Amino acid sequence: AVVSTQSTGNCRACFALDIAARRLTSGRFFVNRDGAVCRPGTITQGKLYCGRKVMVRTRICDGWCGDDDGPNCNACRILQNQLTVDGPYGEFSSVDLDEVEASGCKQQ
Questions:
Q1: Is 94:27 a contact under the CB 8 Å cutoff?
Q2: Is 79 in contact with 4 (CB distance < 8 Å)?
Q3: What is the Cα gyration radius of the chain?
């Protein structure tokens, strides 16, 4: 069950519950504030992607949150920041997530 607010996201306990309830591999799969399952990219290291079409297509982005053609969506970028060592979900991350780069897409 996703318990989230747009401004803060899940508390740590609810974040852990979302991962456990969906039987996701901890440290490899996460649930972003939109309730979408996301994971670290395989092509672009250090970013999270959910694979949803939630952005507007531009010349540098196909509109999909995926690492093969463009940036990650806003919900995945926010979670990526929250998974840093100093972030609220830092203890859940076993992957090295780099600092977020500017996005070339706009949310729909």
A1: yes
A2: no
A3: 13
Beta bridge partners of 107: 55
H helix and E strand count, the chain: 2, 3
- State pTM to two decimals: 0.74
94 in Cβ contact with 29 (< 8 Å): no
Cβ pair 56, 106 in contact under 8 A = yes
pLDDT in tens, 14-49: 888 888 899 988 778 999 999 999 999 888 778 899
Chain centroid, CA 14 distance in Å: 16
Both structure tokens of 95: 């992957």
